[in-house]
Amino acid sequence: MNVLKSLLLAATVALVATGASAAPNGKFGSADVNKDKALTQAEACAGKTPRICKSFAAIDANKDGAVTRSELRAFKNAKRAARSLPVKP
Ligand SMILES: [Ca+2]
Ligand SMILES: [Ca+2]
Q: Is this model's pTM higher than 0.85 or not?
């Protein structure tokens, strides 16, 4: 669990560092080249969604190689939840 926690923390730090908050649907939509409502790693890393690219494996909760909007939302919510929890050593 510590690995997951530090992964989440690292992702959070990375996201905060880029200064981006919620990825607007427009970005998700324009990165979704084939319009299947999911981003493959190639789509996510094509330049429009660098945050998703960076945290792709963590966001892709069901490990099917694609990030959906709901996975992205769940990832963001998990981050928010993680931030309100006390940090354990
Ligand atoms: Ca796609
Ligand atoms: Ca997925």
A: no
Closest CA to 27 of 49, 12, 43: 49
Neighbours of ion ligand 1 (CB under 5 A): 32, 34, 36, 43
Ligand nearest, relative to CA of residue 38: 1
- Interval 10-50: pLDDT, tens: 655 555 444 444 445 689 999 999 999 999 999 999 999 99
Angle 35-23-73 from CA coordinates, rounded to 5°: 85
